[in-house]
Design a protein that fits this description.
340 residues; alpha/beta; Quinone Oxidoreductase, Chain A, domain 1; 2 domains; 7-stranded mixed β-sheet; 6-stranded parallel β-sheet; 25% strand; globular
Length: 340
């Protein structure tokens, strides 16, 4: 098999493709011949050396794949062999063969491509947790989503519009037309507009009920101020820490200094009737049955046409560095994938 390794921290070109023997599935595991692997911002932070969950290097990153089962371990029904599936991996997903526990493998619905399948788990489960499970978004409420053109932003928009909410999104101007077609009601160009000011204008000064923030730092401080009474701010990333091709100590310091550590204290939250929460699907591995229930609901919405993964671009394994560059340059509208 071929795998993509992080052998040292640094720029995208540190990612290296290496050969290794095919793994044998252990008891309770399913082996998948991978057709597509998802690329996520956590992988980029891992490559930079600023992702605390990354195992010691050298390591193969990657959380999600789609492909076809070719072998199963002891205790797994042999009827899985030959099925098209989606699998969640705790690292190791940048490979053309992976083994995953049966509880993290899902039959791919008829008609769903491997590209669509690999685009679903991380983005849509994150969006589900943000919008439905913890954000509690309701019909008639308003949601502000940062990085609206990213995989989570598009997934969250689809869920919010299905619920009947209004969506405000931040994105560079070049993505606005496409995002309107994808359902975003109001767009803010974060490169030249103050999202706090524009959100107040759009909502008539009231603010919003839900904010999804993957930026961190100053963005969280501003977001907290524009929450309406009973508003919730969900944090699911810290892209402001990863501003260059290599680790940037100044960006890390700026993130730490600008993050409102004391603003969301219990007394303030009570007095202002606001809530703050965080989402990291990578820390939900002990909640596999719950994740599975969420994902089955997501697959049901795909069958209904509500969930429609947007594929920005695919890259060959040898182009993994270019895939990371593409995301860091904020060029993507939707999901970036690797195809063996």
């Amino acid at each position: 098999m071929r795998q993509i390794w992080i052998e040292k921290f640094g720029a995208p070109d540190v990612l290296k493709v290496k050969e290794a023997p095919d793994p044998a599935p252990a008891a309770g595991e399913i082996r998948v011949r991978v057709e597509a692997s998802g690329v996520n911002f956590a992988d980029i932070m891992g490559r930079l050396g600023i992702y605390p969950d990354l195992p010691p290097i050298p390591v193969v990153p990657g959380y999600e794949v789609a492909g076809r089962v070719d072998a199963v371990g002891a205790g797994v029904d042999a009827s899985w062999i030959g099925r098209d599936v989606i699998a969640m991996t705790r690292f190791g997903g940048y490979a053309d063969v992976v083994c995953a526990p049966q509880g993290q493998v899902f039959a791919r619905p008829e008609g769903m491509s491997a590209l669509e399948g690999a685009a679903l788990p991380v983005n849509y489960i994150t969006a589900w947790q943000l919008v439905v499970a913890m954000g509690g978004l309701k019909k008639g409420e308003t949601m502000l989503v940062h990085s609206a053109g990213g995989g989570v932003g598009i997934a969250a928009t689809q869920l919010a519009k299905h619920i009947g909410a209004t969506v405000i999104g931040t994105a560079s101007a070049g993505k606005h037309e496409a995002l309107r077609e994808l359902g975003v009601d109001h767009l803010i160009d974060y490169t030249r507009e103050d999202f706090e000011k524009r959100t107040r204008e759009i909502t008539g000064g009231r603010g919003v009920e839900l904010i999804l923030d993957a930026v961190g730092g100053e963005s969280v401080k501003k977001g907290f101020r524009i929450l309406a009474p009973t508003g919730r701010l969900g944090m699911f990333g810290a892209s402001s820490m990863a501003t260059g091709r290599t680790r940037n100590p100044l960006a890390l310091l700026s993130f730490a200094l600008q993050t409102p550590w004391l603003q969301a204290n219990p007394v303030t939250l009570m007095n202002e009737n606001k809530g703050v929460f965080g989402v990291n699907v990578g820390h939900m591995w002990n909640e596999t049955p719950r994740i599975a229930r969420w994902f089955e609901e997501i697959l049901g919405l795909w069958k209904e046409g509500v969930v429609k993964p947007q594929i920005a671009k695919t890259f060959a394994f040898a182009e993994a560095g270019a895939a990371h560059d593409y995301i860091q340059s904020r060029s993507n509208l939707g999901k970036v994938l690797l195809t063996p």
